[in-house]
Specification:
The protein is mostly helical and 486 residues long. The chain folds into two domains: 35-82 and 419-480, no CATH class; 110-411, no CATH class. 68% of the residues lie in helices and 5% in strands. It has helices at residues 5-26, 35-44, 63-67, 72-82, 87-100, 104-130, 134-145, 147-152, 159-179, 183-199, 204-222, 225-244, 246-266, 272-286, 299-319, 323-350, 365-382, 387-411, 421-431, 441-448; strands spanning 60-62, 433-438, 458-461, 467-472, 475-480. The chain has a five-stranded mixed β-sheet with strand order 1-3-2-4-5. The longest helix is centred in the C-terminal third of the chain and has 28 residues, at 323-350. The chain is globular and about 80 Å long.
Amino acid sequence: MGINKKSLSEVFCFAALFVGLLLIFLLPLEKDIWYDESISVLCSKGISYETSLAFTGRDTVTAGEISRYNTFLDVYVATVRDNANSFLYNVGLHWFTGIFGNSLGIYVLFSKLLAAITLLVSFQLARMLMGYHPLTGIATLLLMFDGIFLGMSHEVRAYIMGMLFAALTGLSVLKCITTGISPRRLLTASLWAVAAILCHFLSVYVILSLFAFVLVIGWRRLFTVANIAAVAIPVLLLGVYFYLSLDGLKVMQGQNDTIAAKVADTGHQATLGVVLTETLRLAALDFKLQLVSFAGNSLLIITCSFALVLLLFIWSLKVARTREVRINLLFLFCAGISGSLFLAFLCLRSGHLTAIYGRYHSFCIPFATLFSAYALFVLFQNVRGSSRYAVFTFAALIIIPCTVYFVKIAQDRSVDAKYNQYKVAAAVIAQKADRVVVPHVRHAFLIQSFMPSGIELSYIIDAQATQYTLFGGAGVQKMNILADPE
């Protein structure tokens, strides 16, 4: 009995998903940590920048004293003292490393697992819209090939968890749109939305976009007591967290004011032209017009790439034969473009470019990626004759550059080392050291964050130290200090 096209397509979709999952875990990216990741590590161990005050005047600190901060309550306190952001991620990392250990590989494994689940959710979203069409598998691979998704899957940061919960929110909202609004579906979507915001506050832009879409499409059925309560209860939980974490929000405001003041002092304020160019570039990348990655800062390529995104949007809307398909296209496009619009607004309002970092687009990338695949699906389903050559050209302009770019970044595994405290921890274990000389207790905090629980170790605080010195059964070993944990 022969294998029909439907079966082959289904096999391809699952093969693409399997390859994507395999790449997440097996891709041999070298890894180091940078400042923001060190903050995530410390917060997950209940340590904030104020913790060092408890050890003022001390010349020796033990591992046991530092480990006393490794509790759920201290993780919350440390998160608030940082700026109240990434609470769910910090708690999840705290529990995960508490179970599986504190090596750098375990910290990164947590992000990889979150990335794998995000890929599964995105696959389910694609399958809901396109069934087991080959473009479902291609959409999955395009997300895997995305530089930001790949980067966040290997970083000790909250973005990948926020991306996961944003995708889950989108999945629940799509069910509301396609199968009908109900209190249960709204409650599920609202809980996922609150979880996304508690992972990273910036995810609010895609959350607002998703719920605005529900409001516009289903407003006649939305305003019942049960539906309003289903949304209000999770929002109330979020409000309670913000109220209890008000000090952290004030810290965040202070951090933003400091950045704005520095920008004003240097005179490097964001201009409309710069913001527009960078916004168009990142939007094109979100929607998988990866050609801009090979064009440097060419304004022509950036503008043409974004114009292709708009053309794909307009053409697919035009040929769509049903209202349901048009709603799906609008749903994905609005969620996909939400990051570019919101972050550009923040940039112009604040006067500096900090808000347009690529990683801040993390939360809209699953939707932008799926839009491009779904728009191609709509075109292939409805376009006939010589116009199909244009559809194939569109597909090639998306798939080929994305694949080439992925191969390029997968091969570029150079690491600019910033923090090496995890290497010091590994050396302590290997050398069976029982004392480490550090210049400040902050170094001890970060080294201890990578140490197994129960190890007897003392940190000797010597402000004049220019290297780490390890004493133990294997003698004395010195290691360079690459950066000072702030």
